[in-house]
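dumping the sequnces here before i forget
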Amino acid sequence: MKVRRSERLIDITNYLKARPHELVPLTFFAKKYQSAKSSISEDITIVKHAFLRNNIGLIQTLPGAGGGVLYTPGINQATANNYLLDLQQQLADPQRILPGGYLYLSDMLGNSAVLKKIGRLIATQYAKDNIDVVMTMATKGIPIAQSVASYLNVPFVIVRRESKITEGPTLSVHYASESAHHVEKMELSKRSLLVNSHVLAVDDFMKGGGTIKGMTNLIQEFESDLVGATVLVEAKDDGNPTFDHGATALFNVSGLEEAQPELQVNLGNYLEQVDFSLFETTNY
Amino acid sequence: MKVRRSERLIDITNYLKARPHELVPLTFFAKKYQSAKSSISEDITIVKHAFLRNNIGLIQTLPGAGGGVLYTPGINQATANNYLLDLQQQLADPQRILPGGYLYLSDMLGNSAVLKKIGRLIATQYAKDNIDVVMTMATKGIPIAQSVASYLNVPFVIVRRESKITEGPTLSVHYASESAHHVEKMELSKRSLLVNSHVLAVDDFMKGGGTIKGMTNLIQEFESDLVGATVLVEAKDDGNPTFDHGATALFNVSGLEEAQPELQVNLGNYLEQVDFSLFETTNY
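..and the predicted 3d for all of it:
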């Protein structure tokens, strides 16, 4: 059955959104809708402009026999600013302060709308990078990894402090936990990461950077490469984000460790690290 | 700026898909696109038919002052069968067998496409129920909970065997782990669940049902109600799914515990528990 343009546009939107970073040949849509390739090309032009104007992401059409349509999720800087302001407001609630200089984040990390914002921010940062897999540390990094991985359309793997029987054989490294002031172990199932993988590390909370350094060592043990590391929140009591370890933080929090804790939530170095030009309508 | 129908259809698709189970007034779209309400009504009719024919879900238009458009994600039975066959094929790999009668599932639970299928299957089952929150047990249940929660548009909460400092005060219960043959503890952050919540419990693997029973007790401690419990895989060596505890299993696996394990993956009781009628095109 031939499908009308209005329905094609809805289905193409749905189809591409479910397959980021995946090249879809125009002939696939032409066959699916029993429509001429020229009509599908026109559809894609409409979808392309709508995606960009509505901050869904970039649609590219690659010509030739191996070509097709490619959807890259991402947001422009104005939208990133809005997301960051919204998240900052939620983070700045003083009731989040927990003993020992920690922050209660479980509500935000169990909220789909929050996770989509974090996922889109981080996926925008790495939109042009070649990433094979997202890595995180159990437990609270998992929702962030899952969200980022869905926008990058790659798998995610979970590093654990203590592996379970359900992981099979593991590789492990020890790392210095600066927040806990001792040496801990982290493990990853051997079959969950192939050698020569390009890995993006994400986590919810960074204090000293020990976990990220541990993941970096673990990635080396798997003969793979760390492409980048981004965390939601870095806790640093002088209020200055740590740039020297190469990680990106969406937010920097301070004032947690004082006798009378006074939560300060500032932007981290995210905006300085990200090139939004792919996703700005002014460029098209 | 007035927005053309073609772009409206793309943006409405994107907007509603991001907000399942949320009533959006027609006037919202009319204002957003500077279009007449009658044009928006026509848009919604087009979106409604396209969503149903393409197995995205149900669009309902509720009339009156408090009315609007409501998107309920869900799939028809034919699509559910396809999803189940695909997942069954992936599960049936004998290399998944681990010592002690366990299954390696981490690859599937770190794959966005797999998680979307599981999420849509479980969200279809509970599409008509009043659910406030999805609950799971750390660690491997988390990706399933996150996927289901995104389709139901509710938060998810994570129960842990051992709570961390980052959880704040917790409530705990003890439960008999039939697979581990001893009594264990599970904890949930006190502030993560309100009293009188309607809770859906999900998990990756069930063996004996101890974890689900434990979550049921924990939900009672929070003065809340268990609406349902669904797991990806139930392991039961006689091959007969356990129906008596009221849980739903997408799959039933057996043959794991023999001296020479021989993995058998069969459908669980999911299809018997689910009413797909909302999502069948034949009904419209």
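The radius of gyration of chain B is 21 Å.
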